[in-house]
What we know:
InterPro entries: YjdM_C (IPR013988). This is PhnA protein. By secondary structure, the protein is mostly beta strands. The protein has one domain (3-68): Roll (SH3 type barrels), CATH 2.30.30.40. The chain is built from no helices and ten strands. A three-stranded antiparallel β-sheet has the order 6-3-10, with no helix packed on it. Strand 8 and strand 9 (57-62) form a beta hairpin.
Amino acid sequence: MEVKDSNGTLLQEGDSVTVIKDLKVKGSSTVIKRGTIVKKIRLTEDEGEIEGKVEKTTMVLKTMFLKKV
């Protein structure tokens, strides 16, 4: 399974990514700001999603809104 960011760059476990668009968090009033860096990502079973910690909370993020650092 190949997981790619918004630019088509291959992502691997432990990579760092940057959020390229302000994202609203479902079920919360929180917003993840553009430019936020997510370190030490984990790949999920879905190639369109990754898992990472944002502000001490583990979240699943869509790869179409991420760019490899």
